[in-house]
Structure prediction request, 210 residues.
Amino acid sequence: EGMAPPQRILFPPEKICMAWQQTQRPGAGLHNLGNTCFLNSVLQCLTYTPPLANYLLSREHSRSCHQQGFCMMCVMEAHVNEVLHSSASAIQPWTVVSVLTRIGEHFQLGMQEDAHEFLRYTVEAMQRARLSGSSDLDISSQATTIIHQIFGGSLRSRVTCLSCKAISDTYEAFLDIPLDIKAVSSLNEALEDFVKPEQLDGENGYKCSK
Prediction:
């Protein structure tokens, strides 16, 4: 029952440290390079995500990276190390801005973009970088990258036949969850609304195979 176990472990979960491994003073701020506030806010959130920052500060990725050309993990590693090791009050985040169209083809320098969308594209680009050269991996193994273990998870969709009570489960990996926050007052309430059972009928009806 459940998802198949991974055939390969790409990053040992016991190596992920959720707390800062070394005391960090607040790093440098980020200059706005022309409507880049959406990018700056996302970069600051990622920079101060301890398990990600610990890994990037160790430079473990770049020491073993064989990816030719653009690599989002190398980009983020360079950015985080620059921010947290800089003695300046603020830096210009050109390391990331210069590859904006590589992160998402539709992103344009000088145009205001959606911060959540940029976050999604950035995390997905980091995940692709960690999977580079591993195209034959099964789905469960793909979920063992450090990026997926920090940001992702798996959704189980369960359908129960009301007649014979047969259960059908499907699983889908995710790096973010779309939550409706308009009619709720807390994150827990939004999550409960997201997973609440619903009855499938009409055009959404489910044909039982039993």
Observations:
- Residues 115-131 form the longest helix (17 residues).
- DSSP finds ten helices and four strands in the chain.
- The chain has a mean pLDDT of 93.
